[in-house]
Amino acid sequence: MAKIVLVGAGSFVFGRDFIADIMLYPKLGGSTLMLMDVDKERLDLATAFARKLTEQNKLKLKIESTTDRREALDGADYVITSIRAGGWKAQQVLREITMKHGEEIQPDALGPGGIFGGLCQIPAILEICHDMEKVCPDAWLLNYCNPMAIICWAINDYTTIKNVGLCPNPTGGSQRFGRVLGLPPEDIYYSVAGLNHFSWFLDILYKGEDCYPRLRELYKDPDSHLKPLYPGGHLDPVEIEIFKTFGYFDTGGGHTSIYLPYFRRTPEIVERYRMGDNSRMYNEAPLNSAKQDAEIRQQLKSGKKFELSSEHRFTVIAAQVINAIETNTQTRIFGNVKNNGLITNLLEGCVVEVPCMVDRGGVHPAYVGDLPTQLAALNSSSVYVQKMAVEGIVEKDKNKVQQSIVLDPLTNSMLSIDEIKQMVAEIFKAEKEFLKGYK
């Protein structure tokens, strides 16, 4: 049976959910789930939870754990990455500097947050891949780490490892648009293509009928994006504005405004689109993590019965992929893969998010062809930022990293070249603990 390795098992919300998700597939019984993390205390906690869940549900999944990455990867069939190199400390420092310059960041998108997040993440991910090349060269890497696109791009260009980037953003489209339109979600089909956190619902169909005319009618009021959310809907003002302007809904959710120069330039615009900031996430993340650890320790001590759940949007995708390959049960996902002629009007070799079929043969991306011109134009403004960032990070070239941020659409709409250079210099100085070897 399969050996499944979770690198970053101590990232406990993700680790706990994936452990539960893989147990939803009885045909994977007899497989080995190897948990790996550099934080032994949190790894031990995740291991205790996994063993308790296996015991309570009378499952045959074999649970092992180690802090030794090479040992964990040896002989693996699947490797799931869920790490945050540099931890929250690196993100806190980055946020303080960018906020001083007036730019709100997200570490899992583009701009200074995504690019400097990549400066921490990519070297760590490439180390994992190079270990895989030695001890499990045929394994699939299922990457959940952000910034997704530039990480997968680096894996594609600088390693030989088979990989797909998995993100929950495109999932749940049937439910979202079903609620908005008052239609049963089980009868809604959709297809997505573009870039991670910035892809497009190209088709939204109800029993084969195009839903876009209904959506245009629903949001025909020119100020509909400023009104309270449509009853029962989950579409925010930025999503609605993008749809009304460019004709398609996107998958980005809260990420979309980071890729574009329109929504964060002034406090007034931020307020107009009701975006807020990420202060709570950054301030509370370390405390929430400690609180969750304490809670699970208490639950283990009390003998709580842990229930399996199929409600996880994030981690269940990896479980679906593994089950499909192992059992030759075909499933459809939206994956982040190399653009080998899949989207013909985006840069060849970039990382695109497209429909993929999965079966015994692996992950099979679908041909999309040309995106509508306006969507390709929006995506292309980010693709070359990503390309420059990957080159700068792998080559440890400060100038290329700086150029990628100068090219970033949101950043250059808010700051002058001199202001961007000053911000980048401050970040490199403050983050030198995590960014060694740059020239």
Structure description:
With 439 residues, the chain is of the alpha/beta class. A hairpin with a 2-residue loop joins strand 7 and strand 8. 47% of the residues lie in helices and 15% in strands. The strands form two sheets. Strands 3-2-1-4-5-6-10-11-12 form a nine-stranded mixed beta sheet. It has a domain at 3-92 and 105-166: 3-Layer(aba) Sandwich (Rossmann fold). The chain is built from 17 helices and twelve strands. The model has no long low-confidence stretch (mean pLDDT 90).
- Tell me the CATH architecture of the domain at 3-92 and 105-166: 3-Layer(aba) Sandwich
β-strand number: 12
Ranges with pLDDT <50 over ≥5 residues? none
Q: How would you spell out the order of helices and strands?
A: EHEHEHEHHEHEHEEEHHHHHHEEEHHHH
Provide the CATH topology of the domain at 3-92 and 105-166.
Answer: Rossmann fold
Q: How many strands, what sense, and barrel or not for the largest sheet?
A: 9 strands, mixed
User: What is the overall silhouette?
Assistant: globular
Strand content: 15-25%
> What is the CA–CA distance across the termini?
46 Å
- Name of the top-level CATH class of the domain at 3-92 and 105-166: Alpha Beta
Measured as a percent range, the helix fraction is 40-55%
State the main characteristics.
single chain, 9-stranded mixed β-sheet, Rossmann fold, alpha/beta, 3-stranded antiparallel β-sheet, 439 residues
